[in-house]
Amino acid sequence: GENVEQHPSTLSVQEGDSAVIKCTYSDSASNYFPWYKQELGKGPQLIIDIRSNVGEKKDQRIAVTLNKTAKHFSLHITETQPEDSAVYFCAALFAGGGADGLTFGKGTHLIIQP
Amino acid sequence: SAVISQKPSRDICQRGTSLTIQCQVDSQVTMMFWYRQQPGQSLTLIATANQGSEATYESGFVIDKFPISRPNLTFSTLTVSNMSPEDSSIYLCSVDNLRGQETQYFGPGTRLLVL
Asked: Chain B closest CA to A34's CA: distance in Å?
């Protein structure tokens, strides 16, 4: 099955700086890669996603890049703000037939220092 | 945007008892999933809730422990049976094909503490 590795486990950045979270996946057949933000006491919220036929996607201060050859994808947050503090999870969906759930990374606790 | 709700939002239960968690979506969806998130951990898929047929369970999860129902395209239940303290977790349902969008959206979760 799919395996997703996520780094770092904790990331502390100064407000206004950029943050980058990286993930690698094992199954080259995976074709969909979402990122979720989870605040304390809430369910994960989808913030951006990318499909395997696209190399980069941007949405305001958030961007995701995908390198299919290396099997890794990254989340980039620019001009970080205190409300960006949360746990971020990457995930991968294996499209091997049938309906499958997502395989998640272990999460990154992002701390924005004022 | 669509609304996914779960009941109860939290509960404290005694070991040996069972709890049924409900997931309701305000529009019809093709797929519904149940995940577990143990304290401070990532999300692990328990099973896919199939409408009109038995759920499909992931390795390490069995129907006797986590029976699932999916009576229609907007509702599913997960039961945590014969609970032990190790079952203390957040249980999350997710849906995809929400209004034609091919991605997964999560409910707010049910926080379960087993004493």
From this structure: 8
Select from A69, A49, A68, A45 the least CA-distant residue to A57. Answer: A49
Q: How far is Cα A112 from Cα B73, in angstroms, rounded to an integer? A: 40
Chain A residues in contact with B92 by the CB 8 A cut-off are: 43-44
Q: How many other C-beta atoms can be found within 10 angstroms of the C-beta atom of residue A18?
A: 13
Alpha helices (runs of H) in A1-114, residue ranges in sequence order: none
| Tens digits of pLDDT across chain A (114 residues) | 788 999 999 999 999 999 999 999 998 888 899 999 999 999 999 999 999 888 999 999 999 999 999 999 999 999 999 999 999 999 998 765 445 678 999 999 999 999
Phi first, then psi, for residue B103 (nearest 5°) are -155, 180
